[in-house]
Amino acid sequence: MEVRLKILYTSLCHTDVYFWEAKGQTPVFPRILGHEAAGIVESVGEGVTELAPGDHVLPVFTGECKECAHCKSEESNMCELLRINPDRKVMIGDGQARFSVNGQPIYHFLGTSTFSEYTVVHSGCVAKINPEAPLDKVCVLSCGFCTGFGATVNVAKPKKGSTVAIFGLGAVGLAAAEGARVAGASRIIGIDLNSNRFETAKKFGCTEFVNPLEHSKPVQEVLAEMTNGGVDRAVECTGNINAMIQALESVHDGWGVAVLVGVPHKDAEFKTHPIHFLNEKTLKGTFYGHYKPRTDLPVVVEQYLKGELELEKFITHSVPFSEINNAFELMLAGQGLRCIIRMDG
Predict the structure, then answer these.
(1) Mean pLDDT value of segment 20-34
(2) Is 237 a catalytic residue?
(3) Is it true that the peptide bond before 30 is cis, omega within 30 degrees of 0?
């Protein structure tokens, strides 16, 4: 049930940096990072029937076996067999790595390990897409874009003319803002501690901005004053527990919905007064924008090909594979959104 992929383009996501810095898990070394990518099937293993050599594909850090209770449910995309597992460093078939040097294993990352010219991935984590799609653009769909965009359009579901607050204006937050724009929100309020991000955010539909550091009162009170009682929808894309609490407390009573996207510190706890829920505010979480990788990604690619989605504005840099360290430096410096890494160089 495995396929070997020739990776043509991969991009750096903050999750790669997080694990490279060994902040999110029991550190594993040596390991090949990378999980946002596009490529071509080079060969297929036993039992693989839906993929063939030459297929254009997106490897994804989570999967869809199509057989478990989650995959059969319209309400879940959290495949029992193939859901994300940051601690798993080997293939699930035999518990072995597919990479090695001098007989010693090099471990996998999120089931994808795309910082490599070739990688081996479970076939359930591979989405077959239209070969007409430019791989150097649609590679961003395999993580960041779908996570943010889907959080808004699939989970928050703002109505046309509504007011949406986006907490955190990194790549995922801007994708969430783009979702609000596409959904027809009339006001999209971006919240970030870095005011330098506000100009860029305008390209993604943000109409107003709040930097909490510039206010003496809590940001949820600022938003309530700006919106006559609260926003209709809030999407949190920071992973900061305080931002998560603020997102819930900033939505309007009666109909407000807050959606959590960011991954918090493992010891963080969410504390708020239950009256927010009794006043009919709703708090939701989401994983990968509620997209099922194999079923939904080909559809998202078609949306892009029809001109319904703009992926180009997320891509701010491009480097050959030999200069991958430059991509890390750009992200650590907070420059740009997505840096595409070309595997041919």
Answers:
(1) 85
(2) no
(3) yes
